[in-house]
Amino acid sequence: MPHCRNITYYVSQGRAIRRMVDLYTPIEDLIAENDRCCEEENDRDTTPEQDRLQRGYIELAKALSWVHEKLAGFDHEETEDMLRKLKRGADSARGDDTGTLKDLVASWVNMECCPTPLIRTDDKHHRGFTSDACGKLLCPAEWRWEDPIVKAGIRDRTTAYIVSENSWPSFVYENYEADTENLERGLFKSRLLVMGLKAIFTSPSSANEVDGEGEGADIIENNRRARRRSDQAKVKTCIRFALSNLTSWRTVDGDFDYHIFWNNIVDFFEDAPGPAARARVNKLLEWWTRKVFGRNHRQDLTPDVISLMSVNTLATQRQQMEDAELDSD
Which of 19, 89, 171, 232 could form a disulfide linkage to 11, CB 3.0–4.6 angstroms apart? Predict the structure, then answer.
């Protein structure tokens, strides 16, 4: 029975990995890079890929706070067994999320773009650039889908219009349109992204409520979760997959590499070129927190403020009445 509980526990815990840690990298690679960093503490000459792996391990240790201790205490066989179960849970969660968004994104595009004919929720063959609605959302920010030359070039896959992970797709922008003079303006502020994150991390029904700000439920924990860069990257990657005509999960779609696209998103948040860019990233993350979970002012509830509120005021009044009653006797 304890063995069965371990299987269930590790599989269920593993579901967090593809959602909150890293969508692609094998867990073993994250652990191996952390081991290398520990063995070579004075090595400051690291590659961008090594930095990404180390950040991934740090996120793994945050999401599964017990994993570092287990890795230190387990023998090789026990470690292999645990990682195998974690991977099973991780891959299962990714499959569930892409399946959920496959249906939901079709409904959202129908609602947002009103295409004719409507996109079917149970069929992906007519998505991607064959669909005008999906094509506009997938179109690189530097081009305009409405231009017939651009549209034909993308659909014919000419060398002048290569769609790759080196371009931000229009669906990541506010109102699905980029400002080519300032490509950071409106980036990662689209309704589709907010709906996608809410569908995965709160509930599918909550994804329909994106116009205002969130309800603020469990704001302290959810604020921590909303600020994880990997959550943001995961949603953007999965929505791109849902808009495409791919029928099964894979890393490369034509000239578009999803793994590099994921890295580009994470790098935007993690590798800001300076304090001004870092401040804009933090402001963007605060925007996401408000959109998904609402505003919260609990930190302003000081003892002085609370003492003036009705619960404490009533308690004071009752005590005063009790004291008055005793004095009258």
Answer: 89
